[in-house]
Structures are given as structure tokens and as C-alpha cells.
Design brief:
The protein is 64% helix and 0% strand. It is built from 13 helices and no strands. The protein starts with a helix and ends in a 15-residue tail after the last helix.
Length: 200
Amino acid sequence: ADYLTASKRAVDIADTERVRFLMEQYHDHVAEPCVGYYGEVIDYACGENQRLGRELIAVAPKEWIANAPTSLHIRMSVGGELIMSQMLVSKGLQPGIDAATVLQNYTCTPDRLWMAERLLRNGMEVDPENYYAFDVCVKNNAVECAKLLLDHGTDMDGYLEWTDGHHAVRDEETLGELRDHWQSLCPQEQTEPQMGGMTL
């Protein structure tokens, strides 16, 4: 608790060197270190001092980032911070339950669609059963993003069943294109000619 308090105070006065020093010393100087400490400090920094937060993410080893709050992804996606979002993913932090919000922030305007697509291509994982995330792509006409989700296991039939209980307007052209893509992914049933004689 003392280290966390001291780290947050260092963030408050934008003392980058002090913050990094405390984080580097933490594991070796605390009897029972908490794995969430690093992520909490970085998350706090991103909320209080964006420049410092970005710097910490850039220099942090993977073990500092992997246990950070998934809300860090939301912070970065709100500002369209694609490089930071990709860095979080590369260091082991996935958006988890926040994937739908992250995709919403990256697909809400046409000029950001490429960011969402690149993030998915570069390793951002989305639970195949997270239909909220898939629905965001459908409603925002982010067709290529939705196709990537289908490629990685989202079930189009399952999604269409899910939509029965979520009455929202969706573009039929987008749905049609995604149905076609889904069909191209499904193995086609093959019937082979049966050889043999009569059975008694």
C-alpha cells in the first residue's frame, strides 16, 4: 500500500523517474508483492497524465502489463491510440469483456475502421461467443472486422439467433455479405457415390 501510494503521488507531480524507480524496486522490496500493483499504477497514470501513462506502457516489461485492468484498452480506444492499443496486446493484455466497447470506439467513425481491422489482425482476441462485440461491427458496417471475427470462430447462425432478443436495425446488405462469408467458411457436405451390391 505504501508503494502504491508513493507511486500515485509521483504520478501526480509528473515525476517519471520516481515512478519508474518505485516500480522497478517494488518486487524486491515488498514482502508479499501484489501482481496487480504495476497495472494499477499504469492505469492511474493513464487517467491522470496521458504522456506519463503512454511512456510507462512503452517501457513496461510484459509482466507489468499482463495483469493490468482491461479498462486500459478502453482508455486507449477512446482517443484512437492505436499504437498504444497494439502495444498492450503485444505485451499480453487482451480487452476481455471490454472487447465490444473497444471495437465500438474504433468503428464508430469511418476514419477509424482501419484501426479496428489492424488491431484484430495484430492479435487482439475476441471471445467467439461475445455477440455484443460482433454486433458492434455489424451495426457500424465494419464488414472486414466482422469477417475477421467469423474467421476466428464467431458463429453467424448463433449470432442471428442472439439477435432475436435484441431488436435493432441492421443493414441487410452488410448481413448478406457476412452470411456469404460465413457460408464460404463452412465445410460443404460432400456426398460420395455408394459402391456395392444389394443387401439382404
